[in-house]
Amino acid sequence: MSVDPRIASVTNRIIERSKPSRELYLGRLREMAAKGPHRSTLSCGNLAHGFAACGPADKADLAGNVAPNLGIITAYNDMLSAHQPFETFPDQIRAAARAAGGVAQVAGGVPAMCDGVTQGQPGMELSLFSRDIIAMSASVGLSHNMFDAAVYLGVCDKIVPGLLIAALSFGHLPAVFVPAGPMTSGLPNDEKARIRQLYAEGKVGRDELLEAESKSYHGPGTCTFYGTANSNQMLMEIMGLHTPGASFVNPGTPLRDALTAEATRRALAITALGNEYTPVGEMIDERSLVNGVIGLHATGGSTNHTMHLIAMARAAGIRLTWEDISDLSDAVPLLARVYPNGPADVNHFNAAGGINFMIDQLLSVGLLHEEVRTVWGKGLSAYAVEARLGENGTVVRVPVSKASGDAKVATTMDKPFQPNGGLKMLTGNLGKAVIKISAVKLERQVIEAPARLFNDQFELQAAFNAGSLTGDFVAVVRFQGPKANGMPELHKLTPPLGVLQDRGQKIALVTDGRMSGASGKVPAAIHVTPEAKDGGPIARIREGDMIRLDAISGTLEVLVPAAEFDAREPASADLSHNEWGMGRELFARLRDNAGPADEGASILY
């Protein structure tokens, strides 16, 4: 099946736009690759330090410069449920590498914070920038020049994008991403949301809320809603950085362990020492990134990736834009209903066929580039499979079913849940913004109402608690962008705005902050750029101005005469309370130098 002309058109314009930077990137990559396995360039003292702690067999292999050495970059810590299983992965990888004639060493660890822990807390203001720090930390680990390939252990929100930026910065090395899988299903997500709203209304207490949250987030593995962490796993699969079928297998199972061992063997097989050399910087190209965007739309994935994908693309010399992402949304139907876009969790989604079923459906009508390189070889059709445990404890794969295991969770191309994808760009006299519409009912996708102004989410909460948020309104929450305070996620807004909408009020949110993968049923224009701290138009909105958010036509406007609006002085805000405490004083330079959201909100590019 040839690729759909709409997909080809967007891909070709990305290729043309990216030519100068991509050619420079590939030239540098090939210069590094031409130097061959890099331990040969190390002095004897360098090499002795590099394998001093290894056992005799590993020392002999590394000294001979013929056995491939895998560098393990791990984001393990005990506090993230999704990352706790990684504690045992280095031992598994080392054992699998030795059995396959290679060596594996932990090259370095990277920080990994949990946004679920820091929601509404000062630490959340470090979250977005942790992505770029993770990329730099991984680069430190790989800079020892001891490795023929790298395996990356990471799952959650900023960790995987940061790891991929690092992998692409070392683009001459093959890279395999090894997931840990989602926790088993607990309290249904829609029930958790119901309890949160009751708590926001004061109808249940903290004990009931904590009980519900604990039943939802209850064990090792990724949180089971379809937020940024699970969107990351979908992206790594559809971009060919996982072995096929690896994304959503629960931790601590024989199949999960078999997939980890298999990923190790595959990483060894694609080094420059073998016949299948697959440097990740050449493997990931414009088509791979377009496939990732299409997967995001088809599954209703995280809005965070409107920034992360752009930053990851730039690490490979590729210039991806919000316009590209939005135009692809118009060509790709929504094929999945996973919370917050529906009641199912990722385990239900995987049981219904999961991302591999989606890949098969999208390939069947030319909505993906099939002829891409992956860690498994050439061709994305190799990912239209289900991974199972074979009798001998290895992984076997069978073609996915052409029928969904649950049509309410994963549907076919002829019966999409909606005709377009989950993410759109909005433009107008307030700048540019992003909206996730996959969970927003059609009748709520156009809102015109007066502005209510807030300088953080806590001001809005206070107004809600005081009962002053009456009538229809658009909540404008500003001074929440990268330069203002690091662009924290604003999930404290979700319960009160959801309550007001359920009461029959017409509600929308406009913010230069983030709402992330858990963006739900309230229409939210987020990542507004330029941000208020940069004097963007959002800073010139006044209380009571009429705002029109139209997610159907893709516009975001303040309905004030242009001459009057342009003549206004931008508002200012006291941000001194965001500048210290919980390490925020160490991030001042990052805030000052952060790029805009539509360019990835990065300090690196």
From TrEMBL:
Its cofactor is [4Fe-4S] cluster. Binds 1 [4Fe-4S] cluster. Residues 409-601 form the Dihydroxy-acid/6-phosphogluconate dehydratase C-terminal domain. Pfam families: ILV_EDD_C, ILVD_EDD_N. SUPFAM superfamilies: IlvD/EDD N-terminal domain-like, LeuD/IlvD-like. Residues 68-381 form the Dihydroxy-acid/6-phosphogluconate dehydratase N-terminal domain. It catalyses: 6-phospho-D-gluconate = 2-dehydro-3-deoxy-6-phospho-D-gluconate + H2O. It comes from the Bacteria. [4Fe-4S] cluster binds at residues 156, 223. Pathway: Carbohydrate metabolism; Entner-Doudoroff pathway. Keywords: 4Fe-4S, Carbohydrate metabolism, Gluconate utilization, Iron, Iron-sulfur, Lyase, Metal-binding. Catalyzes the dehydration of 6-phospho-D-gluconate to 2-dehydro-3-deoxy-6-phospho-D-gluconate. Belongs to the IlvD/Edd family. This is Phosphogluconate dehydratase. It comes from Hoeflea algicola. The lineage of its organism: Bacteria, Pseudomonadati, Pseudomonadota, Alphaproteobacteria, Hyphomicrobiales. The gene is edd.
